[in-house]
Amino acid sequence: MSERHTALHEAHEELGARFTDFGGWSMPVRYASDTAEHHAVRRGAGIFDLSHMGEVEVTGPQTGEFLDHALVGVLSGIGTGRAKYSLIVDEQGRILDDLITYRLGEERYLVVPNAGNQETVVRALQERAEGFDVVVTDRGPGTSLIAVQGPRALEVLEATELTPAQDVAGLKYYACVPAECAGVPALAARTGYTGEDGFELYCDNEHAPQLWSALLATAERLGTEDAPIGPAGLAARDSLRLEAGMPLYGHELSTEISPVEAGLGKLVEVALRKKGEAGTVTVGGDALTAMLGTTPQRTLIGLQGLGRKPVRAGYTVVVGERTVGEVTSGLPSPTLGRPVAMALVATDALEEIAAGTVGVVDVRGRAVDVEQTPLPFYKRG
Asked: Ranges for the Aminomethyltransferase C-terminal domain (predicted)?
């Protein structure tokens, strides 16, 4: 399958971006320096093209009831203008994707899946809509998504002809509001995937280049050496989300990793309890209930390197001579100055790991000294 291009692909080429395939999309992995772009988000602001993400609109009189059935989460209970993180699983409770769902109106929601899972989620929602008075529409092909992340994110938007600026500035975390930025109509949301404050702007593809150019012009005008502002690629996004302990589908989440193993047991428990009280039957509910009643074989933990040697995804986790798990994500942390990683390890090895007897082995059999550390590795403020 050929790579798909976002509406901003030519703009990225003009900036000299390096590209990578991500979920079937040709996406900018970096513009100049992974580390510099990472630090810009932590100190100033980074501007990301995230148009590879999916957008699925669900409308109709039974939309809330339908999403309560189709997803793990009580979506009917969120207010208009608010958002919720949830999962979509199959009948066996296997994770098909993790999602953010926005309630845009009484009978209108926007479900945002990950790029590589867009078709899977659309197909699952359309199949599960049978018997409900709803319409499921794939809005992904016509929608662009630009994110501005970092402590200066609001400043950047306000300096880019933002209206109504007061409403956007007043957004709570996991909330959204219709807005205009640089004259472009957009849905402004405040969620983020970097561990920093930030905003997402959903707009039509035809307006994306205008919005992108205006934001970069603001960045050039406002950026400073101590608090830089500029475009950032997916490499920086990956190191930022890892420092913040946020999972990535295909690494910490997949059909082979249960929600409980991934540390999302509490999310599942609360959702199923509320649905049980309401008499709602959810797809995969029985399998999820069974998972909650047993101790998971594996547990997701954080690791940090004791030296400078990097820890990468796929490295083996060992306790003594025993292999106990595998690193799911690992990178040198630009913010902390040491390697950090998340790993799925055998639950029955947790006591030994906590005692400090853990190590990892790279693909060539070389040992790297690590120790367990709480997640997340980084918290802003």
From this structure: 298-379
Q: Which of 22, 5, 102, 40 is nearest to 236 (CA)?
A: 40
Lateral strand order in the sheet of 135-138: 83-89, 95-105, 108-112, 56-59, 135-138
Amino acid at 296: P
Hey, what are 202's tokens?
């959903």
Cis peptide bond N-terminal to 164, omega within 30:
yes
- Strand pairing report for 229-231 and 45-49: parallel
Which residues span the domain enclosing 21?
9-53+142-243
- The residues pairing with 137 across neighbouring beta strands, listed in sequence order, are 57
pLDDT, greater one: 363 or 370: 370
For 276, the 3-state DSSP assignment is: helix
Sign of CA dihedral 37, 41, 45, 48: positive
- Closest CA relative to residue 113, chosen from 306, 289, 249: 249
The answer to whether 200 is annotated as binding is yes
230 and 334 share one domain: no
Burial state string for 160-195 with b = 16 or more CB within 10 A and e = fewer than 16: bebeebeebeebeebbbbebbbbebebbbbbbbbbb
Tell me the three state secondary structure of residue 364: coil
pLDDT digits (tens, 9 = 90+) for 258-317: 999 999 999 999 999 999 999 999 999 999 999 999 999 999 999 999 998 999 999 999
pLDDT digits (tens, 9 = 90+) for 34-93: 999 999 999 999 999 999 999 999 999 999 999 999 999 999 999 999 999 999 999 999
> Is the separation of the CB atoms in 188 and 177 below 8 Å?
yes
Query: Which tokens in the block code for residue 56?
Result: 């699925």
**108 domain residue, yes or no:** no
Which CATH number goes with the domain that contains 348?
2.40.30.110
The CA distances from residue 19 to 62, 110, 145, 176, 328, in Å, are 42, 28, 18, 30, 23
Alpha helix stretches (DSSP H) within 31-164:
34-43, 63-70, 118-128, 153-158
The residue from 243, 263, 278 where one domain ends is 243
| Residue pair 26/4 in contact by the 8 Å Cβ criterion | yes
Percentage of the chain beyond pLDDT 90 is 96
Other C-beta atoms closer than 10 Å to the C-beta of 47 total: 25
